[in-house]
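User: Sequence recovery, please. Input:
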């Protein structure tokens, strides 16, 4: 089926928690969105976006066993429709992850524990094409870009962060390749690149970093 023309006043919400989807739908309808589409995973989210071309997307970054797959969804949507406005709605407060989302094309970022008023403020800003980032996160991201904050993971790409997130869950290379629909060799090569960037000499060392970052709140439970 051919995609519809772009619909600036339509909204797509992509999150794997039904309660979150329901709550965001109510908030979006209250904010005046006539059409709100919902998706529970990144594949369904991309398909809905491709078909309906909503002007605004609200997306989480973490989806079940697929790690930070929301980062790849952001990049794919922006590649398909550069004018799409994307607001990330996530529990992630790590400035490295936030920076990767913004680099991928997200216009705004709001934390899930910020409350409905903060969400509606962010939604209104992104809806009109303005960027939105909580002040504390904006400061950390700015410091990260200036090299003022030690952040070894800042050298990793969005895909490498996604792989590291899955490694922190104890997944094997085979399982990660299956979750990301890539070859086993692709994961092996990415692992080697990450070891080089992070200065560790073994897979065990890389897993130790992944688990440590997860324990520190960088990856979801």
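Assistant: Recovered sequence (221 residues):
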């Amino acid at each position: 089926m051919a995609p519809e023309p772009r619909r600036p006043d339509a909204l797509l919400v992509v999150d794997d928690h039904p309660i979150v989807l329901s709550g965001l739908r109510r908030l979006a309808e209250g904010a005046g969105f006539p059409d709100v589409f919902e998706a529970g995973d990144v594949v369904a989210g991309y398909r809905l976006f491709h078909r309906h071309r909503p002007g605004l997307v609200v997306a989480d970054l973490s989806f079940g066993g697929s790690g930070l797959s929301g980062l790849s969804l952001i990049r794919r949507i922006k590649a398909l429709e550069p004018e799409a406005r994307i607001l990330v709605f996530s529990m992630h407060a790590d400035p490295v992850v936030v920076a990767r989302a913004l680099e991928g094309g997200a216009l705004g970022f709001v934390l899930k524990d910020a409350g409905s008023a903060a969400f509606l403020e962010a939604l209104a800003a992104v809806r009109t094409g303005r960027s939105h980032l909580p002040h504390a996160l904006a400061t950390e991201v700015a410091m990260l870009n200036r090299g003022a904050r030690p952040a070894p993971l800042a050298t990793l790409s969005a895909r490498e962060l996604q792989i590291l997130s899955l490694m922190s869950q104890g997944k094997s290379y085979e399982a990660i390749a299956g979750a990301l629909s890539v070859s086993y060799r692709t994961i092996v090569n990415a692992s080697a690149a990450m070891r080089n960037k992070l200065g560790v000499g073994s897979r065990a060392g890389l897993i130790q970093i992944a688990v440590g970052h997860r324990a520190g709140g960088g990856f979801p439970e």
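Residues 115 and 181 are 35 Å apart (CA to CA).
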